[in-house]
Amino acid sequence: xxxxxxxxxxxxxxxxxxxxxxxxxxxxxxxxxxxxxxxxxxxxxxxxxxxxxxxxxxxxxxxxxxxxxxxxxxxxxxxxxxxx
Length: 84
Fold this sequence. Notes:
Layout: E1 4-7, H1 18-27, H2 32-35, H3 41-49, E2 53-56, H4 68-79
Parallel strand pairs: 1-2
């Protein structure tokens, strides 16, 4: 039986300028809890959907400073190994 593929793309942030991005990095609240590894909903999706699904969750480049051109380039490459 062929599995149905599910592709999960998590959002990224984009900024109007490098200066705004730098300001966010300087002012974003940092806590020890934010720095600890965590398991999020994407990690449990395979269990929730069951064995008839194949979950793919590519790590997108520069998620804290997303650039459409780079995300498209990477996603197009990921499509090469995904089922039609």
